[in-house]
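The authors assume throughout that readers already know how a fold can be written as discrete tokens. The format is easy to grasp once an entry is in front of the reader. For illustration, here is how one protein appears when written out as sequence plus structure tokens:
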Amino acid sequence: MAFAYRPARRAAFPALCGALTAAGALAVSGAAFAAQPEPWQMGFQKAATPVMERVDEFHDLLLILITLISIFVLALLVLTVVKFRESKNPTPSKTTHNLLLEVVWTVVPVLILVVIAVPSFRLLYYSDKAPEPTAAEKAAGKTVMSVKATGHQWYWSYEYSTAEGGRLRFESRIACRGTIDPDNRKECEEANARFQAEHKRDVIRLLDVDNEMVLPVGATVRVYVTAADVIHAWTIPASGAKIDAVPGQTNETWVRFTRPGWYFGQCSEICGQDHAYMPIALRVVSAEDYKAWLAGAWKKATEDSDGFSVVREPQKTARTGKPAALVAASAQR
């Protein structure tokens, strides 16, 4: 299994410093696009999915409305201070009711809320379930993929459905940085050298993992999210996906990346001591590269190496549709 860094307590201060600073840029020329935090970044990461594009549009709409409302309120305050100051109005008005004014300040906020609510609900329902393939997509052989993400203390595991008669499963743990934990420096350097040789770039601190999630560009992917112990949250900012991972419950989101590259996220629900050390790394590649990766990952899984394994589907009887092992056990009673 590939070495993955498990932070020691004495590494807390440098790790905290690293968390407060943005991850370094890709070091090697020719590396693929990477969506990651940048120094002094104020806005969203560049949208990489249709959902995030709509989130950006909704954000821009809200920003316009908030700006106009703030300017209007500021203008009213300035007008009130200037026009109704004591020197100009020694005898203040004692007006207590104004029907027109009360109707206006009730109706206008309602209309503003409606303007916000309509695109908000559209976005909510659009991001909730993956769209079904169109007739043209079905004719072209395009289907909706499914990937299961499970949160653990403190790493992620992923399961892919395959045509080989089982599910491909692998663990994804934070990549090692030798400068953090001197006791593991040699192993870290070896692991980082393998990473650099494979991906042609340096490890991004606190964001890279030993086994990243891989998806084909343009594919619609349902992501089923759950947890094995405590509540986590699976988040990829550039995709607009953020969903809780709850033990005993499976939540669903979906992504469709429009361009290849690396995309990073982190667990977004405080889940214990090493919450800050369970990043999410996702690599989007072409369909051909995805098939090559899947073949290599399946080979690792059959050999049970580098954190990859095969989850066999239970065989079901033709008559009952129940797992054969359960039917056999019932027959022996």
